[in-house]
Design brief:
heterodimer, A: about 270 residues, alpha/beta, Alpha-Beta Plaits, Rossmann fold, 2 domains, 9 helices, 11 strands, about 15% strand, globular, B: about 475 residues, alpha+beta, Cytochrome-c3 Hydrogenase, chain B, three-stranded antiparallel sheet, 20 helices, about 45% helix
Chain lengths: ~270, ~475
């Protein structure tokens, strides 16, 4: 080992500061939200966004009400481009995670919605008590995901994101794990192995759905999961910083409420225009 | 063998049975292109008898669901012989000799001699990777034979693609194997452009190439790091694990997605709105700085004899094996063969700055070292090109995300195919399209389909402890195989 390693000892660390991380990433498309144009007029009978959404994440309920399931959103931005009256825009909001599946479904009326608070579920509370100070280990199961979640998890261990620095480690066996993290829509042939991995784990334990496909199946029908996941992380794939802050959210180290963050983001977008 | 054979060759790289016309189509790979040949009035029997069709390709492309595989009576030495294996596979096929079984795992029994043992791995592996079943037959520490069976992640993509419009097909194409999203969306887009008569400007083509090279660079840097990690050489591992993020970040700055998803559509490329020349110059600078950090550690690593000895002669594939088993892409290039679809893409050479596709052949002798070094050479060439070409991109011509293909009224129906050199090798896509642009039938062959068999061949006689290293040196797609 040479001088290079010694020099490194005196360099400033490059790990990101998770407490100061922004839920918005300027370069990423993020989830689509109604733009200022959506607050006036109506959509009439236009359902072009609904019909062209690859995962059917959009439901145009009436000429003024539109429902987004951000747990099914691939953040591809097709709806934004295809809307004939520019009523949607890419928000850049990438922190799409929650304990409750309903929390990441938003119904907009005239481009607006009232955010709701969702209490921390009981079993997550137990998990937080155990892991808040000690961190947790997870076993990853790729259940027919498209391999990008695995790439981003790999990246979460580099010195910039530093998963282990956040006390979250990946382990080789579910017997050593506190949580099972799975990606993908759970194909028929992976439902069994995923169930086995879950059953091997001692209580208390958590099931983490990483990526849009794991939450709703995405483009594919959702397969059989061992149970309703405890943490949903949206994105195809979610960025490493999103997953790590979601893990910190699961441990109770990071406070986040998706609906309120979304409301803030929409307000900010409209203000700048 | 004369050098001639290795300079100009042609082997079968795909087989597509089109139900509509009841015809088999074979795809022939040369060193820089792929062509499609219809096999008129050829029956299944004749195809399986034709030894030039690699058995893995037949089983992947034409295979049907079948029960457990039992090789307990078959001597390992004879199963290693590919002709014998073909006969056995056909015997074990589901219905007489009119069908062949697929490669999905449904239970497999192998012959175990008193002096050896068999060892199963999977479906869930120890690391953060995809699931598959590896059955090793091992004597002492040496792998005699390896059977790889996959199919755990089968999502019925080929069925799903049926009746899909172009706009609906692109997101599915990108999910075939998410790490190769750019190569697949490029292949699909080119097919639709051909069928719809959509003109694509040189500027758009160039931007696509830039994205394709970014994808290659990002994965290669990650793989170099992963190999270094497996050897236990952490300086290179650490730098690569972090600096893989630079090309991904550049991709995100350009397209809004770290993997270039939903960026390439027929007739256009959808780029971020806030791009301008100064951003492009910064991105180019980021890339070259990232390369300098990787290069410094890579050179330190390869100058260390322990690393060289670890990789040298590990998991070797010969040129003859490449030609006999239709191995393509990186593992084929690592044997020193010239094989790259990018040769046939004139824009790489006619752009203001050409992309250098020449490789230092003296390192490329088919082993893990060659695959390690090849990645570095490709990263070096691609980043040198990207640095110069990024500021030259005419982003105003990229389109504003109009989703042009929506406006196309009529498509010329027929069977189209495209092959694009992704980072693993050439992806092959053939689509049967109707007048509305909907897919009637699809054929997808990831380079992994052929190269998984290369891994089986490469590890024969190798130490079982070296398997992770060998596996990583190929880094194949499970999900792209399972479809």
């Amino acid at each position: 080992m040479g001088i290079y390693e010694i020099k490194n000892l005196f360099k400033k660390h490059t790990t990101m500061d998770f407490d100061k991380a922004s839920p918005v990433n300027q370069n990423a498309r993020g989830i689509p939200v109604p733009s200022k144009a959506a607050t006036v007029g109506s959509c009439k009978n236009c359902k072009v966004c609904e019909t062209n959404c690859p995962t059917k994440a959009i439901d145009v309920k009436s000429d003024v009400e539109i429902k987004f399931d951000y747990g099914a959103c691939l953040q591809c931005g097709i709806c934004v481009n295809i809307c004939p009256s520019q009523k949607l825009e890419n928000s850049g909001l990438v922190y799409v995670f929650a304990f409750n599946r309903e929390e990441i479904k938003i119904s907009y009326v005239k481009g607006d919605f009232v955010p709701k608070e969702f209490p921390t579920p009981e079993n997550v509370g137990v998990f937080q008590k155990l892991t808040k100070k000690r961190g947790f280990n997870y076993r990853e199961v790729a259940a027919a995901g498209n391999n990008t979640v695995e790439w981003e998890l790999g990246a979460s261990f580099n010195n910039f994101f530093d998963s282990e620095g956040q006390m979250v480690r990946s382990v080789a066996s579910p017997k050593h794990a506190d949580a099972v993290l799975f990606s993908g829509p759970v194909s028929e042939n992976m439902a069994g192995p995923l169930q086995t991995a879950w059953d091997c784990m001692p209580e208390p334990k958590a099931l983490i759905a990483a990526g849009t496909e794991a939450i709703s199946g995405g483009l594919f029908p959702m397969g059989k999961r061992p149970k309703e996941p405890d943490l949903f992380i949206g994105g195809d794939p979610p960025r490493p910083d999103v997953m790590l802050n979601a893990f910190r959210f699961l441990m109770g180290q990071f406070k986040y409420a998706f609906q309120f963050a979304l409301k803030d983001r929409i307000a900010k977008l409209r203000e700048t225009k | 063998m004369s050098n001639n054979l290795f300079d100009s060759y042609e082997f079968i790289t795909g087989i597509f049975y089109n139900k509509r016309t009841a015809t088999y189509f074979k795809f022939l790979q040369t060193n820089e292109s792929v062509k499609m040949v219809p096999l008129k009035d050829v029956k299944f029997k004749e195809i399986v008898k034709e030894v030039r069709f690699p058995i893995w390709l037949l089983r992947h492309s034409l295979g049907v669901k079948s029960g457990e595989e039992d090789y307990s009576d078959v001597d390992i030495e004879s199963i290693k012989n590919s002709n014998e294996r073909r006969r056995l596979e056909l015997e074990a096929a589901a219905v007489g000799n009119s069908e062949i079984r697929d490669l999905n795992f449904r239970g497999i029994t192998v012959n175990v001699q008193p002096d050896s043992y068999s060892h199963a791995v999977g479906p869930i592996h120890a690391g953060i990777i995809e699931p598959g079943h590896f059955r090793f037959s091992v004597t002492g520490e040496y792998i005699q034979h390896l059977n790889i069976r996959l199919g755990f992640q089968k999502r019925n993509i080929l069925e799903m693609l049926k009746d899909k419009s172009p706009l609906a097909a692109i997101p599915i194409a990108e999910a075939i194997s998410g790490d190769t999203a750019v190569a697949y969306s490029t292949a699909f887009s080119r097919i639709y452009e051909e069928a719809a008569g959509l003109k694509v400007s040189q500027e758009v083509k160039l931007i696509r190439m830039v994205l394709l090279e970014l994808e290659r660079v990002a994965v290669h840097i990650g793989d170099i790091g992963a190999l270094a990690g497996d050897i236990g050489y952490y300086p290179l591992h650490g730098v690569c694990a972090t600096d893989r993020g630079v090309p991904l970040g550049v991709m995100e700055a350009l397209t809004g997605s770290r993997f270039g998803k939903a960026a390439i559509f027929p007739g256009e490329v959808r780029l971020n709105k806030n791009l301008n020349l100064s951003v492009l110059i910064t991105l180019a600078a980021n890339l070259i700085n990232c390369f300098r950090r990787v290069e410094y550690q890579f050179m330190r690593a390869v100058n260390s004899t322990t690393i060289r000895e670890r990789l040298d002669d590990c998991g070797r594939i010969t040129k003859m094996q490449v030609l006999h088993n239709s191995i393509i892409g990186m593992p084929a290039r690592a044997t020193g063969l010239r094989m790259d679809m990018r040769y046939s893409e004139p824009l790489y050479q006619t752009a203001k700055y050409p992309l250098d596709l020449n490789l230092e052949r003296e390192h490329l002798n088919g082993d893990a070292w060659a695959r390690f070094y090849l990645r570095f050479l490709e990263v070096k060439n691609s980043i040198a090109w990207l640095e110069k070409i990024l500021p030259e991109l005419d982003i105003s011509k990229a389109g504003k995300g109009e989703l042009l293909v929506q406006k196309v009224k009529k498509f010329k129906p027929g069977i189209y195919f495209q092959s694009v050199e992704g980072w693993r090798g050439a992806v092959l896509v053939a689509l049967d399209i109707n007048t509305k642009g909907q897919i009637v039938e699809a054929y997808i062959r990831d380079p992994s389909v052929l190269n998984w068999h290369a891994l089986e061949l490469a590890v024969r006689g190798e130490l079982i402890g070296d398997f992770p290293l060998n596996n990583k040196s190929f880094n194949l797609s499970y999900v792209g195989f399972d479809l």
